[in-house]
């Protein structure tokens, strides 16, 4: 495997496809006429990377279809001619999930940007995958509804990308991830076949293929329509800022809140560096003299919120809190969240570059993991700012480095890999919402053995028999589907000879 991106292995480019580039471009222009095909190197530059900007690679060609029929025709052509395809939404992926390949068609879904149907009676909306996450809530706001998952990038990230990565957000502790809020999809298989999974009904019969598609990172098909669950806005929502002298105290407070049977709409945590950066960015009144800050939001009937605020205050005081401020208006509550949601871009003021990591741990391990991350920070000589969904243990350490300083990118990547190994070591997982992509691909054996990975590959092969969709992502070793069907013989005997063969 080779690639133009230093330090990253990408699938070796198919010379036969590269040699046919002009013919491929002509065929694609016949399918998507007008300005739907971008082939000039300079015009393709905006597509060379996604949110993981440390890695860059120009695609073979960019195609921007505007109808499901065009998507189906493009995929069928690529399947028939054995051309790889990399699906792309808004390009905000932080794991390199939309990183192009030199010999692959980059299939951009940005023109699929319409809200098709709002059905409040069934509490559902049907949207195209290019609609932004926040755009759904704005479309139904006047009706008193909203779409619950809210990634920090919700103003820019698309719902199709959310489906691909099973995105979360600050309010997913109570209301769930994308998989808990998507009811159905229309998708196109690599063969060009259009299929529908789920719908406006609560559950579909048969195999739960919808849950297979959500979080599949573009490896199984291309989503062209999404049916999402709408929720009624809560009667009351109150947020409280709680400052602590140590991150361990804040982590203990999170554990006690959940352990006390309280399920807030959200519990977010930031450490000193992240607090300072966010406050300088939005000026919402975050305390600057604390080591850790929790944002706890409670919603529901007013009486319930008032009671739970008292309980959270009592728990926080028992965990050595030094500041506590409750929102007194909707504007102030939104201000609290403006700082948290601006934390990622705000941290850009602290360092020329940073890696935004994503791993999930059991909540009870928060104090230990935060302590170990400080030790790793000293070991690698790199600062780390912590911003994460504390309520569900989804960490987002931001490793600060300078790409122009020799060796710092490698150090940052090794630091990040150690954090992810630590997550698995304490009983967690490699990703909570950013996906595996290329960032965590080579760490998959840390969490899965060869049998596990082989089973996952067999599932991909059931959808993509030629391994043309987004190859080089998720799986550390690129296999052909034909290899997955082989029966291994050892010592002249089949394994488990007593089992019937079909």
How would you sum up this structure, described in words?
With 502 residues, the chain is an alpha+beta fold. It has 18 helices and 20 strands. It has helices at residues 15-19, 21-31, 41-44, 68-80, 133-140, 159-165, 172-175, 209-213, 247-259, 272-282, 302-318, 330-341, 343-347, 366-380, 408-425, 444-447, 450-463, 481-484; strands spanning 37-38, 61-63, 84-88, 104-108, 115-119, 124-127, 145-146, 182-188, 194-198, 222-229, 231-232, 236-244, 266-271, 292-300, 323-326, 353-356, 359-360, 384-388, 394-395, 397-401. A seven-stranded antiparallel β-sheet has the order 15-12-14-13-18-20-16, with helices on both faces. The chain is globular, with a radius of gyration of 23 Å.
State the end-to-end CA separation.
35 Å
Fraction in beta strands: 15-25%
Structural class comes to alpha+beta
So what's the overall shape?
globular
Major sheet characteristics? 7 strands, antiparallel
Number of strands: 20
**Which parts are unreliable, with pLDDT below 50 for 5 consecutive residues or more?**
none
CATH topological fold name of the largest domain = Uridine Diphospho-n-acetylenolpyruvylglucosamine Reductase, domain 3
Spatial strand order of the main sheet: 15-12-14-13-18-20-16
- CATH class identity of the largest domain: Alpha Beta
Q: Under the CATH scheme, which architecture of the largest domain would be assigned?
A: 2-Layer Sandwich
Helix content: 25-40%
Q: Let me know the average pLDDT.
A: 92
Number of domains: 4
Number of helices: 18
């Amino acid at each position: 495997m080779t690639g133009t991106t230093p330090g990253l292995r990408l699938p070796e480019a198919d010379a036969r496809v590269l040699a046919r580039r002009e013919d491929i471009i002509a065929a694609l222009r016949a399918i998507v006429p007008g300005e739907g095909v971008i082939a000039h190197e300079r015009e393709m530059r905006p597509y060379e990377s996604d949110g993981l900007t440390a890695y860059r690679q120009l695609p073979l060609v960019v195609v921007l279809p505007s109808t499901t029929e065009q998507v189906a025709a493009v995929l069928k052509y690529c399947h028939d001619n054995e051309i790889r395809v990399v699906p792309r939404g808004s390009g905000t992926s932080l794991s390199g999930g939309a990183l192009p390949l030199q010999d692959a068609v980059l299939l951009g879904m940005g023109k699929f940007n319409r809200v098709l149907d709002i059905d409040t009676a069934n509490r559902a909306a049907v949207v195209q995958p290019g609609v932004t996450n926040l755009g759904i809530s704005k479309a139904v706001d006047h009706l008193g509804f909203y779409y619950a998952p809210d990634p920090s990038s919700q103003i820019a990230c698309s719902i199709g990308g959310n489906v691909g990565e099973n995105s979360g957000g600050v309010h997913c502790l109570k209301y769930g991830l994308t998989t808990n809020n998507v009811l159905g999809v229309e998708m196109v298989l690599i063969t060009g076949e259009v299929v529908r999974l789920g719908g406006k009904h609560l559950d579909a019969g048969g195999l739960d293929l919808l849950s297979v598609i959500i979080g599949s990172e573009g490896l199984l098909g291309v989503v062209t329509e999404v049916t999402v669950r709408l929720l009624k806005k809560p009667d009351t929502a109150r947020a409280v800022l709680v400052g602590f002298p140590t991150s361990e105290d804040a982590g203990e407070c999170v554990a006690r809140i959940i352990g006390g049977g309280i399920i807030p709409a959200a519990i977010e945590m930031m450490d000193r560096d992240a607090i300072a950066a966010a406050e300088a960015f939005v000026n919402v009144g975050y305390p600057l003299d604390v080591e850790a800050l929790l944002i706890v939001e409670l919603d529901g009937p007013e009486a319930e919120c008032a009671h739970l605020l008292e309980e959270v205050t009592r728990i926080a005081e028992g965990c050595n809190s030094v500041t506590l401020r409750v929102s007194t208006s909707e504007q102030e509550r939104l201000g609290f969240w403006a700082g948290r949601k601006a934390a990622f871009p705000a941290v850009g003021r602290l360092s020329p570059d940073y890696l935004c990591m994503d791993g999930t741990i059991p909540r009870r391990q928060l104090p230990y993991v935060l302590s170990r991350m400080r030790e790793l920070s000293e070991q690698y000589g790199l600062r780390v700012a912590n911003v994460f969904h504390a309520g569900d243990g989804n960490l987002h350490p931001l490793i600060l480095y300078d790409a122009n300083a020799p060796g710092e990118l490698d150090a940052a990547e090794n630091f990040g890999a150690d954090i992810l190994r630590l997550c698995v070591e304490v009983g967690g997982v490699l990703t909570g919402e950013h996906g595996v992509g290329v960032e965590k691909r080579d760490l998959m054996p840390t969490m899965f053995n060869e049998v596990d990975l082989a089973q996952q590959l067999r599932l991909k092969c059931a959808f993509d028999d030629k391994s043309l969709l987004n190859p080089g992502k998720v799986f550390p070793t690129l296999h052909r589907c034909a290899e997955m069907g082989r029966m291994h013989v050892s010592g002249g005997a089949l394994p488990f000879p007593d089992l019937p063969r079909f």
